[in-house]
Amino acid sequence: MTLRRLSAAALAPCAGFLAYQHPSAHTEGAVPLVAASTQQKSIHELFSLEGKTALVTGGSQGLGKAIARGLALAGADVIIASRREPELRAALKDIVAGTTVRGEFIVADLGRDGEAERLGHECLRRTGRVDIFIDNAGISRPGAVHTGRDDGKIPPLRLADFDATLAVNLTAGVRLLNVLAPAMVANGWGRVVHISSIGGLGSSEGRTAYSASKHAQIGITHAAALELGPHGVTVNTVCPGPFLTEMPLTMLTKEVRDGVAGKVPLRRWGDPTELVGPVLMLVSEAGAYVNGSVLRVDGGLLSRAY
Q: Active site includes 306?
């Protein structure tokens, strides 16, 4: 191998990097170039959530339950919320099993006006702070834009269903964030993760309301990342692909499930636990510099152009 000396011109684009000094070498009062909190941490410390409190909406089943369990295993106290107390009570036992974290549940119907604000204030009343907000609650009501040629395959979109879908999937998350963000800002640390969908990056027939809500979550992520980032609060979105939760297991035939798996480059559905790692990265110190991002977790499904 032949080594040659680089000219000053060749090194010019790297000048800023080469001139970098560790923040410890800065003069007193200077603004550090990197966050001191991420320096010299072990892998365990980077992913640990000890001392943090997390709220997971839609946390009694499916992806929400899996995420809540992962956060508890990482050391976070966890609050889960959904509409039905029996499901919440049973889920919470599974979520905190084998850990020493504190777990709570709050019954809340986020489709009803005022419920999001009530949930947010109740979380703060019980725990004093919410460091991590996982905006996971969601519904899907089928309906297609009217074409005037009803073929009977997909029902026409009802505006009541459209409004109901946006109320849960979109508006409730914004309302909750308005309640929770001030405390995060005051503490100088917070993590917000919207659980969108690949339906927020594309769509399919009959998913007008659902896709509209999931696309909008991504827009909110970009805006809130700009607004909250200067205060130490990151906002990101995760877009899951096909995950084998209770819904597809009970509503789709094996033939349909196999057909979906065949379209995924990994040739299978995702297991709910496989969403835990990406979310844990985003809410821990490991993801401290990830802000305003949209992370696709779909087995490569949307990588195909045709």
A: no
